[in-house]
Amino acid sequence: MKNIALEVGNLDGLFVLIFLVMFGPPVMLTLIGIILRKNKKAAKVFYILAVTYLIIGLGLCASIMIGY
Q1: Is the dihedral of CA 27, 49, 66, 14 positive or negative?
Q2: pLDDT of the residue at 40
Q3: How far apart are CA 23 and CA 26, in angstroms?
Q4: Angle at 28 between CA 38 and CA 17, to 5 degrees
């Protein structure tokens, strides 16, 4: 029998998707900032974007998981 990610009673796939939306882009932006460390201005922009995305993502996704 095939395992469906979003069955009616099993919402583990949805939890993983929300977790990836919360933490995926900030991690990628931080890694890009680390790679661009020689160009301090560009690295700083990526760090600021990562923190901003993390704050907004945690706020929105947490409110979705809590149920408003």
Answers
A1: negative
A2: 93
A3: 6
A4: 175
Contacts 24+ apart (CB under 8 A), 19-23: 19/61, 21/57, 21/61, 22/54, 22/57, 22/58, 22/61, 22/62, 23/54, 23/57
pTM of the entire structure?
0.72
DSSP conformation class of 42: H
Q: What is the pLDDT of residues 2-56, one digit of tens each?
A: 566 556 677 777 778 878 888 899 999 999 999 999 999 999 999 999 999 988 8
Residue appearing with tokens 């890009």: 32
C-alpha span between 13 and 39 (Å, rounded): 38
Query: Is the pLDDT confidence value at 68 over 90?
Result: no
Cβ(6)–Cβ(16) below 8 Å: no
